[in-house]
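To: structure subgroup
Subject: Chain for Friday's discussion

All,

I'm putting the inputs and outputs inline so they're searchable in the archive.
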Amino acid sequence: MTLRLVASRLSANSASKRFFLDRTLTASISPYRCYVSTETKIDDSVSLGENIKAPPMVYISGEEMTHYASQLIVEQWIKPYFDTSAWEIYDLSCKNRDATNDKVLHDAVEAGKRIGSIFKEPTITPSALQVKEMGLSKAYGSPNGAMRRGWNGITISRDTIHIEGMELGYKKPVFFERHAVGGEYGAGWAKVGKGTLLTTYLPQDGSPPFVVDKRDLTDDNNVVVVYHNPYDNVKELAHFFFKRCLDQKITPYV
């Protein structure tokens, strides 16, 4: 099921505008069309009629000010007009992750796989200090990494936001893309002294292992970090990135 709002503008001087929803499109996917009425003698208002059934979605709640702001939006702007009973809500606050021994994260990832539509508020990956301040039993890892792995995430898009009237120092939008799986989110690390560091690969097919990297550590104190990036979906990542650049006529930098 999808919810689609299609704006159809009608120009009329000095005409009052009234928004309403029309269900005349294909009933099998239950879309809604949004019109702007130019009827006169009607006060400017938004009328959504009966409580509209929102499609299924996984709603992942987080913490701090964004959580507070999101709840205001949901309570004041969404629930009065939409029936959200088909939403599945998962509380990924640090305290609830601790109370459920992180089962809530596993359940949220599984629900995201099943439904395929997710909204997530920002969450906290607690530092050692926050573990103590919140009274957590342990430091929990990033929920974002678990979600990307569980949903086979390809890319994370972080784009500049352009607001009319505000000069940012550049005219064109700037797109940032990075691989959403592997990398430092799943890194292993250790603090070590002098010695030799070997990164050895043991093939699953039983063929002989080999050394990927060997380096001599000559300093008294070192931090070593090991991580990998899966190559399976790099082609999809590249296609997505370059297509966005071509569509927006932006010069790509890799």
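Points worth raising on Friday:
The helical segments are 64-78, 94-99, 103-115, 128-134, 143-150, 234-248.
Confidence is low (pLDDT under 50) at residues 1-46.

D.
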